[in-house]
Fold:
Amino acid sequence: MADEINTTEAPVEAQDAAGQEQGNRGGRGGRGGRGGERGERGGRGRDGRGRRDDRRNNEEQGEELIEKLVHINRVSKTVKGGKRFGFAALVVVGDGKGRVGFGHGKAREVPEAISKATASAKKAMIRVPLKEGRTLHHDGNGHFGAGRVTVRSAPQGTGIIAGGPMRAIFESLGVADVVTKSVGTSNPYNMIRATFEALGEQTSPKSVAQRRGKKIADLLGRGGSQTAEADAAAVTE
Structure:
């Protein structure tokens, strides 16, 4: 009987020991597995953030923008206990190649307000066709509120005849020769909106020819130009 009892108890103890070892190994393996999964997930997260940062840096490096601070104003909000002061910034952004936009932002600090206005301007950029890459194709008028502006194309060497917010717009746009006039108000917000309305009406001979289903030389020749073919070949926008 003793022999039988010993032979039955030994396997039970061995099984218990083996079970404990397997449990320990399983516990360590499970923790290690979870740690590995966390590490892999963390690695993917870091790599993902790195890729997004790289794309953002590549976009910023590939597109060099001209940023001009047009106006900054201190604003206040009356709250319980006094006034809360902040700043409002107006920024014009352009690439110097026919794209320009404006935006405004408010914040408690000046740098944050400027950054908000710049981000808003980048999202609202428009493309303006330029003649020979230096001036406008034709004259235009724009008005917003009490602001009224007139923009005119100019021959080479004229320069930017504009002041204040309008000069910032044309410098960011890449225009080298233009004549402008602003009447009615000196509010920079209204002046900029009126100027953008005038620029939004700009059209190029190429777009007009495509809309009418004709050739550029036919449009330019109707004005009595003797060099319509050469002028049409020179039109790029």
